[in-house]
């Protein structure tokens, strides 16, 4: 008989939403029941309440609830009339939807590399692309190699930390580019001046996928904006471009958030800041434990910029021999994830863009070295220290 491996001393899943639900179950069920009793499932009072609350929370004037974070990005691009012949500058190290939505409009993603410390878009790389690969033609910024008109900049606030927005906004102003913030992972994140993710650009886009700090019971998302006319345009676009009903001056889509999802999110929003605070506390426990473990050269914890409010949607470390470590942690009962194993410029569907390995070295290095550890609010101190102990044991074993 084959001898079984011993059971792990502890289980630490990457994410467990059940403890969170237990604390809000009664309120959540009551909110859902109220929607069921009303039988008003599309763009009702819960949606309006959520939009108003999240606009205030994100320091913006308007919230437009949508069907997912992906649809938030797509709606933003459509509202800014970005399409065939256009281009959008963004990061190759992010979730697929960032560049996927650009391509779905018929526009071209123009990738710029990331900063190695934060994994966020590098302003210097953006400037180098604009000054080295683009030129002015008839008042428009044109990407020379493709002939596309560069219309927008889409920075990604990755893992829960705001991008360095001031230099990026300055570049966008100089180049006359719209700014769409991919804030899918960053609800509540702030820069050193206290400005909220989503409030910097023309449109901010959020995801409420269940794994997010503010997660729905399925797919849901939100766009935020300061401009009244732009916000109204997005509201019309999310209902097939119909205004008034059955009259269509332009083509939109079915991007509406469900009333039931809005009801759930209205309950959860009351707890968001506390959940994010506990994630940050868990991150500090990890940071201190890694420092005590003497793993310099083996493990690099995430960098939180001075004065910035990091919400730790993920706690992502850089490590040596990442894949072997991940396998060892799985045997020890520790859940992990790789965000993201293949940068977007090397994805098969973007082969027509002509990129090769080595074009964006920091993004490629991050794809090979990073590993996300459990960080959700309900983790115990014992679980957090167990994760670090197992990582230290892996490297102590000469791996």
Could you describe the 3D structure shown?
It is a single chain. By secondary structure, this protein is of the alpha/beta class. It has two domains: 21-269, Type I PLP-dependent aspartate aminotransferase-like (Major domain) (Aspartate Aminotransferase, domain 2), CATH 3.40.640; 272-396, Alpha-Beta Complex (Aspartate Aminotransferase, domain 1). Helices cover 38% and strands 14% of the residues. The chain contains twelve helices and twelve strands. The strands form three sheets. It has a seven-stranded mixed sheet, sandwiched between helices. It is globular, with a radius of gyration of 22 Å. The protein starts with 17 loop residues before the first helix and ends with a helix. The model has no long low-confidence stretch (mean pLDDT 97).
Ends distance: 29 Å
| CATH class category of the largest domain | Alpha Beta
Number of helices: 12
Helix coverage percent: 25-40%
Largest sheet: 7 strands, mixed
Radius of gyration: 22 Å
CATH-scheme architecture of the largest domain? 3-Layer(aba) Sandwich
Strand order of the largest sheet: 1-9-8-7-6-2-3
CATH topology of the largest domain: Aspartate Aminotransferase, domain 2
CATH homology-level superfamily of the largest domain: Type I PLP-dependent aspartate aminotransferase-like (Major domain)
Strand segment tally: 12
Mean pLDDT, as a whole number? 97
How many structural domains?
Answer: 2
Please state the structural category: alpha/beta
- Overall 3D shape: globular
Q: How much of the residues is beta strand, in percent?
A: 5-15%
Unreliable stretches covering 5 or more consecutive residues: none
Order of helices and strands: HHEHEHEHEEEHEEEHHHEEHHEH
């Amino acid at each position: 008989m084959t001898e079984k491996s011993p059971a792990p001393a502890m289980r630490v899943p990457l994410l467990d939403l059940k403890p969170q639900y237990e604390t809000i179950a009664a309120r959540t069920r009551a909110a859902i029941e109220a929607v069921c009793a009303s039988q008003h499932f599309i763009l009702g009072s819960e949606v309006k309440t959520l939009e108003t609350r999240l606009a205030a929370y994100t320091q913006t004037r308007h919230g437009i609830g949508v069907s997912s974070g992906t649809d938030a990005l797509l709606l933003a691009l459509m509202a800014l009339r970005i399409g065939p012949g256009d281009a959008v500058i963004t990061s190759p190290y992010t979730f697929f939807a960032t560049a996927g939505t650009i391509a779905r409009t018929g526009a071209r993603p123009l990738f710029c590399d990331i900063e190695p410390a934060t994994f966020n878009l590098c302003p210097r790389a953006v400037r180098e692309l604009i000054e080295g690969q683009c030129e002015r033609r008839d008042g428009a910024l044109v990407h020379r190699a493709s002939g596309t008109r560069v219309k927008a900049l889409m920075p990604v606030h990755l893992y829960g930390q705001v991008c360095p927005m001031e230099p990026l906004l300055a570049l966008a102003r100089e180049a006359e580019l719209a700014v769409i913030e991919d804030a899918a992972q960053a609800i509540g994140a702030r820069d050193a001046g206290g400005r909220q993710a989503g409030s910097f650009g023309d449109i901010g886009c959020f995801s409420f996928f269940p794994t997010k700090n503010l997660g729905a019971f399925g797919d849901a998302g939100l766009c935020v904006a300061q401009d009244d006319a732009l916000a109204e345009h997005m509201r019309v676009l999310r209902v097939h471009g119909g205004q008034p009903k059955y009259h269509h001056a332009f083509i939109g889509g079915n991007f509406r958030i469900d009333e039931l999802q809005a009801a759930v999110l209205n309950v959860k929003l009351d707890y968001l800041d506390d959940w994010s605070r506990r994630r940050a506390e868990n991150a500090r426990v990890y940071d201190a434990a890694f420092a005590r473990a003497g793993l310099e050269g083996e493990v690099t914890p995430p960098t939180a910029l001075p004065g910035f409010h990091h919400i730790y949607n993920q706690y992502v470390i850089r490590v040596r021999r990442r894949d072997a470590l991940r396998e060892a942690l799985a045997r020890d009962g520790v859940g992990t994830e790789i965000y993201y194993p293949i940068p977007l410029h090397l994805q098969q569907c973007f082969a027509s863009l002509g990129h090769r390995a080595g074009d964006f070295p920091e993004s490629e290095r991050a794809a090979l070295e990073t590993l996300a550890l459990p960080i959700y609010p309900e983790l115990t101190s014992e679980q957090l220290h167990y994760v670090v102990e197992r990582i230290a044991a892996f490297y102590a074993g000469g791996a």
